[in-house]
Sequence to fold (86 residues):
Amino acid sequence: MSSSFWVQLINVISNILLILIFLSVILSWILPPYHPVREAIDRIVDPLLNPIRRILPAIGTFDFSPLVLMIIIQFASQILISIIKR
Fold:
């Protein structure tokens, strides 16, 4: 398989994760926690957010762990892509 395939795969996976994190944040404002759509997205996103939440607790009513996770995903994908392109 060519390196462009792996680069595209990493981009697609990271973009899907970023969209799911964004949806999780938006849906947490709109839908109750027991709504099936929110539960499905939270089952995917929460295992990624929980380690960050242990290190960085919420500040008042603000939870910055989704933002931190989005930055980590972007950073990791760029590192992987740069390694593949070598």
Notes: The two ends are 15 Å apart (CA to CA).
